[in-house]
Amino acid sequence: MTDPVFLITSLVAVGSAVAAVTRRNPVYAAVWLLICFLSFAVILLQMAAPFLAAIHVLVYTGAILVLFVFVIMLLNLKDDELGEEYGTGVWAAASALSLGLFGLMAWPILADPKLSAPLPELPADFGSVEAVGRVLFVEYGLPFELVSLLIVVAMFGAMVLAKKRLWA
Amino acid sequence: MTPWLIFGAKAVGGLACQMGVGPAFTIVERRVAAWIQGRVGPNRVGPLGLFQPLADLVKFISKEQIVPADADRVLFLLGPLLVFAPPIFGFCVIPYGNMIGDEHLQIANLPIGVLFVMSVISTGVYGMMLGGWASNNKYALLGSLRASAQIISYELSLGLAILIAVMMSSSLDLNVIVEQQAGKGFGAWNVFGGGHLSQLPSGLLGFGLMFICALAENNRLPFDLSECEAELVGGYHTEYSSMSLGVFMLSEYLSMILMCGLMTSIYLGGWSFPGITDPSDHSILAGLISWAVFMTKILSMMFVYVWIRWTLPRFKYNQLMDLGWKAFLPASLVNIALLAVIGVMGV
Amino acid sequence: MANDDRVGSRDVEPKGFLAKTLMKLYVPSVLSGMKKTMEYMIRPKATLQYPEVKRVTRKGYRGEHRLKQDEQGRMKCVACFMCQTACPAECIEITAGPSPWPDRDKAPVQFRIDMMKCIYCGMCEEACPCDAIELTETYTQVSTSREEKIYDINRLLSN
């Protein structure tokens, strides 16, 4: 917790995430989400995972968020089409629920005795492309192939939905 | 103190490659365009018109900055900056010369250089999208929608084309990729198969695909549909004026330089040229020669960009998308499969 | 894609798979287009650097008028009004007066041509019986007002 870079990036990440949720204009929400994703990438870099950081930026900011912004811009909602603002009660309930969820996840991690123990020494190639690739394609080869199968099925589903007449 | 000095020198050198060449290239673009059209082109400001970019700069700066009345002020002014930053950021990992002493001529040596450039390129689209949306103009919005759809479509084929070179060099480190191609003749260049004759078709196809996808990524003719002046006035920067328009224009050239730098590094042997550079010579003179070779390669590729721009007519939007998804994507996938089979068989 | 018959515009049919594929991908047409633009790039340019280099007018070019003078420096015009009559644009306005020389009766006191009206047809030159007016090859005379564009006798004599 003493590292200032980690402190700043995590504060930026949390702050921009809150801003992304609370902004009323969807384009601004997307911009805050962009900042949030980029600070995640910096945090990943700090945790000796350069490959994951690059892929995070490539996939999340480069593709997924672009699609979000694309759809938001395509709809281009006016202020009066955005609907009623939620009341304070709803905000409070939502905040309490999210904080509760966060606590539920954070508590077992913080209570873990391994946390206070000294960190194990990382292997030299930790987080490199070779290490990630070996784990992904050798150690977890079968789950990886199953996931790719799942994605192919999802792709076919999208095609079926998008095509008006399937056999035309 | 010394590491910071060295880093500063490298950063200045790297920025000079990009920020110096970018504005200077606008005059080349205008002169070449004129020559192709049988004109002479701007030749009044300074010798051969070489100071024209300075005159353009003065003109851009001295014009009034107009923000449309209903525009979203913050995002409108943020747009040009978001387009401007990524190409400069991405150029940090391009090696622009051979080692001098123990120092690579490269601002930052990342083990994932190629991925870094790709991820940086992919964020460049935000400035166009947000700028176009914030202008509160239908043409600008359409232009930015086209730009974003085009860029995310071609990013896939571009990534796969880059992957071909990465597979040949089996590294994501741009320094390693360049050094593997250096000092072993033209055959070692990845475009000619990276030292294995059996990989020659893959290299040629990969380079061709990457070149065309780079045209599309940079919104250059024949793929400049996002700023297609006939239908969209000026595309996403319709409402921009003064230096913020200038920044949009300049970042187009900067991202061209980044793209050409990346292509040169991973396919065309980077700073090496058989017979001119010696990879084992780490003196200052050899470093400067290798830098000159690198810049010559980048400038020749950009000249081809300009040449293509004034030769080919613009594609239709459906043709563009068909080409990207139905021709380039399958071709790159087949290319990767082919290369993988060749690699496994060890021919 | 459309217009397959025009692709490449070669007389010979491509033979073999590779040639056909390249033809389909517009590779030959793109290359021939780029060859053409390269030809234009290195060919001499048609543009003249105007204020420094002026286009040489061809013989018979009809520019601004001049009133001619004979060997003794007398103006040749005898104020016969033939040019004024012949002018289709009605831009010539002559005021006649008695001639100071014995060999002719009249001479112009004033001779005005409105260059804004003139259509540079050369009819005045053809109509003149004394070969006194002619069109020169001057084509760039700048004026800052309409009045300056009405040339008087001195201007025409010195043209």
How would you portray this structure in words?
The complex is a heterotrimer of chains A (168), B (347) and C (159). Chain A has 168 residues and is mostly helical. Chain A has helices spanning 4-22, 26-46, 50-75, 88-111, 129-139, 141-162. In chain A, helix 1 runs antiparallel to helix 2 (26-46). Chain B is mainly alpha-helical and 347 residues long. Helix content of chain B is 66%, strand content 2%. In chain B, strand 1 (97-100) and strand 2 form a beta hairpin. The longest helix of chain B has 35 residues, at 2-36. The longest helix of chain C has 16 residues, at 27-42. Chain C has helices at 17-24, 27-42, 82-86, 123-127, 153-158; strands at residues 65-67, 92-98, 106-114, 133-135, 150-151. Chain C is 25% helix and 15% strand. In chain C, the strands form 2 sheets. Chain C has a 3-stranded antiparallel sheet.
Low-confidence stretches of chain A: none
Helical amount of chain B: 55-70%
> What fraction, in percent, of the residue positions of chain A are helical?
over 70%
Quick one: biggest sheet of chain A?
none
Rounded mean pLDDT of chain B is 85
Which regions of chain B are unreliable across 5 or more consecutive residues at pLDDT < 50? Answer: none
Over all CA atoms, what is the radius of gyration of chain B?
20 Å
Put simply, the count of helices of chain B is 12
- How many beta strands in the DSSP annotation of chain A? 0
Cα Rg of chain A: 21 Å
Topology of chain A as a string of helices (H) and strands (E): HHHHHH
N-to-C order of helices and strands of chain B? HHHEEHHHHHHHHH
Q: Major beta sheet of chain B, specifics?
A: 2 strands, antiparallel
Broad shape of chain B = globular
Strand order of the largest sheet of chain B: 1-2
Oligomer: heterotrimer
What is the domain total for the residues of chain B? 1
